[in-house]
Amino acid sequence: MNILTLLQEILGPYKKFSRGENYFKCPFCHNPKNKFAFNENNLKWHCWHCGNRGGHIIYLLKLLNLPKKTIRQFKDALGEVDYSKYKKPEEKEIILYLPQEYKPLWKKEDSYEYRNALAYVKNRGMRVDDVLRYRIGFCDSGDYAGRIVIPSYDSENNLNYFTARSYYNSSLKYKNPPVTKNIVCFENLISWEEPIILCEGMFDAIALRSNAIPLLGKNLPKKLERALVVNKAKDVIIFLDSDAKMEAMKMEHHLKQYNINTSLVLLEDKDASEMGFDLSWGQIDNAKSTNWKNLIEQRLSII
């Protein structure tokens, strides 16, 4: 399988031009026209609409968070390549846009999709002020059709991530943008002087409502770690499922090295978005701090 066939499986149909240029739809700005150029001769990529570019196609695949198996297929198709001559693009160079079909959920409209999207949000326990505060929207067409869209903004109110959750029974519940998760999610809403709650996903953070930062997984992003230190955070509560016990305990002890008062909540059955505000905060009020002995015992128990 050649490189263009593999790339087509990820980015969709392309248009072939001269001198090795091939144009796809951009995975960053979602422009409906094929503005994303990939040159099969020098293996570089560049979107002529949003300006995102990179030194090698493999770096793009890593930004897209593709499985290692898929990246290996590309490397096999490319053969031997000297990657040292290609400059790896810095994360700050990547500019993310909301899907062009994004519609604010707080702007009422008389449509079947709007009513379904709104019903889903209400069933998840979200209120009108949650929708406004987190700028929650939906898409009724395009690549993110049938999905609730929750954007995240950095301290300067620049979009740094979004998640798109299907409000129908879809086999693919979440469809996330092809950018790094090494961010501070909801950074523009955080008060570093107040206790900070670290949870797994955006829906959990919204359910907690007060100073919650989604990890977008179970591990601490480097940028978030740096932000906690630079902003001199005093109190942190790690609020994760019990299946992330080891990750949570390691995170707790790691943050304590910075003299951050860190405690832990491990949930057994339901996450914050399922429990709701009152039950979640009941757990947080009883948060406990583990010691080094607890961590060693936990590690020994899984050997």
Give an account of the 3D structure.
The chain is built from eleven helices and 14 strands. It has 303 residues and is α+β, with helices and mostly antiparallel strands. The protein has three domains: 91 residues, DNA Primase, Chain A (Alpha-Beta Complex), CATH 3.90.580.10; 84 residues, Alpha-Beta Complex (DNA primase DNAg catalytic core, N-terminal domain); 123 residues, Dna Topoisomerase Vi A Subunit, Chain: A, domain 2 (3-Layer(aba) Sandwich). The strands form three sheets. It has a five-stranded antiparallel beta sheet. A five-stranded antiparallel beta sheet has the order 6-7-8-9-10, with helices on one face. α8 packs antiparallel against α11. The mean pLDDT is 84.
Summarize the structure.
By secondary structure, the protein is α+β, with helices and mostly antiparallel strands.
CATH topology description of the largest domain:
Dna Topoisomerase Vi A Subunit, Chain: A, domain 2
- Main β-sheet, in a few words? 5 strands, antiparallel
Secondary-structure element order, N to C: HEEEEEHHEHHEEEEEHEHEHEHHH
Report the C-alpha radius of gyration, rounded: 21 Å
User: Domains counted in the coordinates: how many?
Assistant: 3
CATH class of the largest domain: Alpha Beta
Label the CATH architecture of the largest domain.
Answer: 3-Layer(aba) Sandwich
Number of alpha- plus pi-helical segments: 11
Spatial order of the strands in the main sheet?
Answer: 1-2-3-4-5
Unreliable stretches, pLDDT < 50, 5 or more residues? none
Roughly how much helix do the residues carry, as a percent range? 25-40%
- Report how far the terminal alpha carbons are from each other: 42 Å
Number of strands: 14
**Which word captures the global form?**
globular
Q: Quickly give the structural class.
A: alpha+beta
Strand content: 15-25%
Average pLDDT, all residues: 84
